[in-house]
Design a protein that fits this description.
Largest sheet: 2 strands, antiparallel
Structural class: mainly alpha
Strand content: 5-15%
Radius of gyration: 25 Å
Distance between the termini: 13 Å
Number of strands: 4
Length: 159
């Protein structure tokens, strides 16, 4: 069975790290340290960390951490988020939906101030724009926006 990074491991599973977390909290000494590494089986925090390192080296291939896969894909705000068809008869509906997302001043949006490169200094006054807020999810059977998959959706969950 291939385990992906999106798989949630049960607390009862032998590879679960929950028992390590409990042991870390209970420790009162660092453990035995020799030749630049902690010794397994001698107790202490170092013993737990060394055991976790051994477990990770075994599990990283099974969990796919040694060969990450980059997923690139396109999605459509118009059809997949708003549910509006890509045809001329629906253009007016799409424009109306965009008008609902207009803001008078982008400087009033914290994300704009924190993460965007402004196209004009704040001193020049208000910067109007379109701000479309949406959640994203990666769930089997749903599109990028969390809606059930429908014809034409490009985002396919591969979990």
């Amino acid at each position: 069975m291939k385990i992906t990074a999106f798989t949630f491991i049960s607390d009862r599973d032998p590879v679960s790290a929950k028992s390590f977390l409990t042991d870390i909290i209970r420790q009162r000494h660092l453990g035995q340290y020799e030749n630049g590494q902690y010794v397994v089986g001698q107790g202490g925090l170092g013993d737990i960390l060394a055991t976790m390192k051994i477990n990770y080296s075994v599990l990283k291939r099974q969990m796919g951490f040694d060969c990450p896969q980059t997923e690139t894909g396109k999605f459509s705000l118009r059809s997949e988020l708003m549910g509006i068809k890509h045809d001329e008869s629906s253009d007016a509906v799409f424009r109306d939906e965009l008008k609902k997302s207009c803001v008078a001043d982008l400087w009033s949006i914290p994300e704009f101030r924190n993460y965007c490169r402004p196209f004009a200094p704040k001193q020049l006054g208000e910067q109007p724009g379109i701000v479309i807020s949406f959640p994203t999810q990666i769930i089997y059977g749903n599109n990028f926006f969390g809606w059930p998959l429908s014809g034409g959706d490009r985002w396919r969950s591969r979990i």
